[in-house]
Amino acid sequence: MKNQWNRKLITALFCLFSLPAFSGLRPVNLRCEYKTDPVGIDTPQPRFSWMIDSREPGVRQRAYQLCVADSKELLRRPGSDIWNTGKICSGSNFSVVFPGITLEPARRYFWKVRIWDESGRVSAWSRVARFSTALLSANDWDQAKWIGYESLPDSMKVVPFVHGKGDNLGDRLLERAVNPCFRKRFNNEKQITEAYAFVCGLGQYELIINGKKVSDDFLVPGWTNYAKSCQYNSYDVTNLLQNGENVIGCLVGSGFFYINRERYRKLTGAFGFPMLRMILHLRYSDGKDERIATDESWKTFPSPIEYTSIYGGEDYNAGNECSGWDNKGFDDSGWEKIKIVKGPGGAMKAQLEYPVNVMEAFEPEAVYSPSPGKYVYDFGQNASGIVELRVSGQKGDTVRITPGELLDKQGMVSQKSSGGPFYFEYILKGGNTETWRPRFSYYGFRYAMVEGAAPANESQKEATRVISMKHLHVRNSMPAAGSFKCSGDFFNRIFNLIDWAIKSNLVSVSSDCPHREKLGWLEQAHLMGESVKYRYDLFHLYNKIVDDMLEAQTEDGMIPSIAPEYVRFDGPFRDDPGYGSAMIILPWYLYKWYSDKRAVERAYPAMERYIAYLASKADSNILSHGLGDWLDVGPMSPGISQLTPVSLTATAFYYYNALLMSNMSAILERPEDQQKYSSLAIAIRNSFNRKFFDQEKRDYGSGSQTANAMPLYLGMTEQDDYRDVLSNLKKTIANDQYRITAGDIGHRFLVQSLNQAGESQLLFDMNNRTDSGYGYQLKKGATALNENWSGEEFLSQNHMIMGHLLEWFNNGLAGIGRQENDAGYTDIVIEPQIVNGIDWVEASYQSMNGEIGLRWEKGNRGFLIEATIPCNSRAEIILPAKSRTQVAFKGKKKETDRMIQHISEKDGKVVVALLSGSWKLKCNYKKRK
Question: Does the pTM of the predicted model rise above 0.70?
Answer without folding.
Answer: yes
